[in-house]
């Protein structure tokens, strides 16, 4: 999660890039961008948005607690933005403090899920939507973010129940969006380009975690 306030991740304006180039290139670029943006934002037209139910979760067994709508952007993934990545975070604080800051509109960031030390999973943003969790717009748009309660310098915070619950969650996300179960598509926040975060830290056992994800991915639903 980190301690520095993240920048807002607002919608791009159609044709903005065209202002930076001139002549024929500007006209072509504007047309291509407009087409791309219209394809991504089609859900804004009344009557075409996917049905949503208040309090609905994407992972069975998760508890719904809504993040502030200032900390995420409404979307219709994977139709407007494809999902091909899971980003692993550590909260650098308690579960309760993470929930509190994700509900704070001034915080500027939130993840889709938080996994508690006892394995309890809370969902705060629908997978349909873009969470401001990675500190990189492209990665936000293409990923699901999972926070884990604890501190990067406290290996005792990374419990068996946490690893197992998180692995089941990641396995279901990978199955839902046909994401390969490998370290190119399941990454730590530290691996996101441009970030200054270090989570999940040196004590996160990637070998163990990936084995658990693979086992959960092949287990009967």
What does this structure look like?
- This protein has 221 residues and is α/β, with parallel strands linked by helices.
- Helices cover 29% and strands 11% of the residues.
- The protein has five helices and eight strands, in the order αβββαβββαβαβα.
- The protein has a six-stranded mixed sheet with strand order 1-5-4-7-3-8, sandwiched between helices. It has a two-stranded antiparallel sheet with strand order 2-6.
- Helix 4 (160-177) packs across helix 5 (206-218).
- The longest helix has 18 residues, at 23-40.
Low-confidence stretches: 3-7, 10-29
Biggest sheet details: 6 strands, mixed
Distance between the termini: 30 Å
Q: Roughly what is the average pLDDT, rounded to an integer?
A: 85
Helix coverage percent: 25-40%
The geometry reads as globular
Question: How many beta-strand runs?
Answer: 8
Element pattern in H and E? HEEEHEEEHEHEH
What is Rg?
Answer: 18 Å
Strand content: 5-15%
Topology, please?
Blueprint: H1 23-40, E1 63-64, E2 72-73, E3 85-88, H2 95-102, E4 113-115, E5 121-123, E6 130-131, H3 137-142, E7 143-148, H4 160-177, E8 186-188, H5 206-218
Parallel strand pairs: 1-5, 3-7, 3-8, 4-7
Antiparallel strand pairs: 2-6, 4-5
């Amino acid at each position: 999660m980190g301690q520095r306030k993240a920048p807002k991740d607002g919608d791009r304006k159609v044709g903005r890039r065209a202002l930076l180039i001139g002549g024929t290139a500007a006209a072509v670029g504007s047309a291509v961008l407009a087409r791309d943006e219209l394809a991504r934002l089609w859900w804004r037209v009344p009557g075409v948005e996917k049905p949503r139910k208040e309090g609905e979760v994407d992972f069975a067994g998760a508890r719904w607690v809504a993040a502030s709508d200032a900390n995420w952007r409404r979307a219709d993934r994977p139709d407007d933005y494809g999902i091909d990545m899971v980003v692993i975070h550590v909260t650098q604080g308690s579960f309760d403090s993470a929930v509190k800051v994700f509900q704070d509109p001034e915080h500027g960031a939130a993840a889709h899920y938080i996994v508690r030390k006892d394995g309890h999973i809370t969902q705060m943003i629908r997978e349909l939507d873009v969470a401001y969790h990675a500190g990189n717009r492209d990665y936000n748009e293409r990923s699901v973010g999972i926070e884990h309660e604890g501190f990067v310098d406290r290996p005792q915070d990374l419990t068996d129940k946490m690893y197992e619950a998180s692995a089941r969650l990641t396995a279901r996300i990978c199955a839902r969006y046909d994401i390969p179960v490998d370290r190119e598509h399941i990454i730590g926040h530290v691996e996101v380009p441009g970030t200054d975060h270090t989570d999940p830290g040196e004590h996160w056992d990637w070998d163990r975690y990936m084995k658990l994800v693979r086992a959960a991915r092949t287990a009967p639903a």
